[in-house]
Inverse folding.
């Protein structure tokens, strides 16, 4: 067996091992993680202890938890603190797809780099050039390492778009509830009760944290920061400022909702204006060549036949 085959075999085996261990590590749960998930689903009880949450886990998962915990800690050592915190915010915002945690994302990155690098190196060996093999290995490692990050960023953008689309209607519900005599907390509860979507999940989590004793300002500011939407952040700041100064909060929310609708309408008009420019490329590249072939093809055939004779 050639040395290159040995290297490819080792890389492929390492990729499979890291993928398997990453899946196991991402599925690991401790009492804090269970409490976070129960909190998001509004199912946690104030008198429930961490031991009770721990006993809810399957027996096999509890027995293998020390090994998975050790593996998670080893992978977490490879993840910088700021990057891990950023992954945690993104995963919380997207509701932890596939039960991933920051260590699981980092494991997927390493496994992807090893697996895709092995595949691209194997394809590069078909050319027989060592330069192409090295370039294929480098491209595969970079692609596999950054693909999970790009996938997570895309999930965050999609979730953010959903929140932005739901925000004006949600603000109208809160404003109408407050004008009917409800307080801010009760108006938010009405929003959670009558609407569904990613925004209501964030509001439900903030309400539950406030019920557990967290200050309202901290819970609302963290909720706004988790979305990464500037309009939402400015709205929360306006609500907190109105609460401190005595300005009617319902009026602030209504004004912000109207402003967001105007902004959304302008964005739609801008995108509609850009559509004519975007359609120009497929028109010139696909439609015009076909028309030229249909119109000039018969004439070209006649000219070639005359020259032939």
């Amino acid at each position: 067996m050639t040395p290159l085959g040995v290297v490819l075999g080792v890389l492929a085996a390492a990729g499979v091992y890291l993928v398997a261990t990453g899946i196991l590590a991402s599925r690991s749960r401790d009492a804090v993680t269970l409490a976070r998930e129960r909190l998001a689903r509004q199912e946690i009880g104030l008198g429930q202890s961490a031991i009770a949450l721990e006993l809810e886990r399957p027996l096999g998962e509890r027995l293998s938890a020390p090994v998975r915990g050790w593996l998670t800690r080893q992978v977490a050592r490879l993840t910088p603190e700021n990057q891990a915190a950023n992954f945690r915010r993104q995963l919380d915002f997207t509701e932890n797809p596939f039960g991933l945690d920051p260590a699981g994302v980092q494991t997927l990155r390493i496994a992807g780099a090893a697996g895709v690098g092995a595949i691209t190196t194997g394809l590069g060996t078909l050319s027989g050039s060592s330069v192409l093999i090295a370039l294929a290995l480098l491209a595969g490692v970079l692609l596999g390492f950054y693909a999970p990050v790009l996938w997570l960023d895309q999930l965050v953008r999609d979730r953010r778009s959903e929140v932005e689309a739901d925000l004006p209607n949600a603000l109208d519900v809160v404003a109408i509830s407050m004008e009917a005599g409800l307080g801010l907390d009760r108006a938010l509860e009405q929003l959670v009760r009558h609407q569904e979507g990613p925004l209501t999940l964030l509001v439900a989590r903030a309400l539950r944290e406030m019920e557990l004793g967290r200050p309202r300002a901290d819970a609302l500011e963290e909720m706004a920061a988790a979305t990464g939407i500037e309009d939402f952040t400015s709205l929360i700041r306006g609500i907190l400022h109105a609460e401190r100064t005595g300005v009617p909060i319902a009026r602030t929310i209504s004004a912000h909702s109207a402003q967001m609708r105007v902004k959304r309408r302008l964005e739609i008009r801008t995108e509609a204006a850009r559509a004519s420019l975007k359609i120009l490329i497929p028109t010139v590249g696909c439609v015009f060549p076909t028309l030229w072939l249909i119109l000039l093809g018969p004439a070209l055939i006649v000219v070639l036949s005359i020259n032939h004779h």
User: Anything to note?
Assistant: The chain has 14 helices and no strands. The radius of gyration is 28 Å.
